[in-house]
Amino acid sequence: MRRSPWLENHNSAWRLQALCVGEDPELFFPLAETERATARARAVCRRCPVLLDCRDWAIRHGETDGVWGDTTASQRRAIHSAALDR
Ligand code: SF4
After folding, report:
1. Whole-prediction pTM value?
2. What local confidence, expressed as pLDDT, does residue 5 receive?
3. Measured from the CA of 28, which atom of ligand 1 is nearest?
4. 20 carries a ligand binding annotation
5. Measured at the alpha carbon of residue 49, what is the angle toward residues 30 and 52, in degrees to the nearest 5?
6. Does residue 41 sit within a domain?
7. Which class for 84: exposed (0-12), middle (13-18), buried (19 or more C-beta within 10 A)?
8. Contact present, 17 and 51 (Cβ < 8 Å)
9. Could you tell me the distance, in angstroms and rounded to a whole number, from the CA of residue 50 to the centre of ligand 1?
10. Residue 43 belongs to a domain
11. To the nearest whole number, what is the mean pLDDT of the chain?
């Protein structure tokens, strides 16, 4: 069984509101990072009340796999790189 974003962050209070609790973890860690493969997970994220906390956590911790806070790993890398260039 794959991990789930909310399980990974057991020390973060925001996880208690994570909408991915109860969702199939496979949704959030698809084999491909395509729009089609990530669409269902990202739809859950867009309804999640802690989207920004989750995204921030994933970027700050360099999370390299999966969908976190409506972002893919490559999108998070781009956000992180852009922040470093400032
Ligand atoms: S933003 Fe997405 S991955 Fe993050 S806690 Fe919410 S549903 Fe889970």
Report:
1. 0.85
2. 57
3. 3
4. yes
5. 70
6. yes
7. exposed
8. no
9. 7
10. yes
11. 89
- Give yes or no for residue 50 CB within 6 A of ligand 1: yes
> Does residue 71 lie in a domain region?
yes
Domain that holds residue 19: 13-84
Four-point Cα dihedral 44, 48, 50, 54, nearest 10: 10
| 27 CB near ligand 1 (under 6 Å) | no
Q: What angle do helix axes 51-60 and 73-85 make, rounded to 10 degrees?
A: 70
- State the pLDDT at residue 24: 95
Amino acid in the structure at residue 26: E
Q: pLDDT value at position 7?
A: 53
Determine the average pLDDT of the residues in 3-24.
78
Q: What is the mean predicted confidence (pLDDT) over 17-37?
A: 95
